[in-house]
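#structure-requests
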Amino acid sequence: MANNIKTALEFLKDGQSFNVGDLRLGIDSSSGYFKVIGWSQYVNFTNLTKKNSLKELEDIKAIFFEMVNASIELKNFIQNKPMEFILCFDDYGKASIDICSERNGVIKWEIELN
């Protein structure tokens, strides 16, 4: 994992996204937000709910902060950068559909869920 993080940092410095484990790390060039993207474990869209989506978003954050705690380089890189965490649904490899995101503790829903 440490080597993947170091490789990711090189891509990030060049403004490119990079996958580390189950997450994609990147920087939104228009907003400057450091983006952490993860995908839902649900394969059937109809099984998505707000409750399980929020849990998955929290899991994404936990995995990311484990990476940060394991890498001083990543910790230094994200210091003072605004953060956005995004949960996506993988539409069978066709496209990723944003479900929800979190910026500054505020959840934004991109789709209607129960």
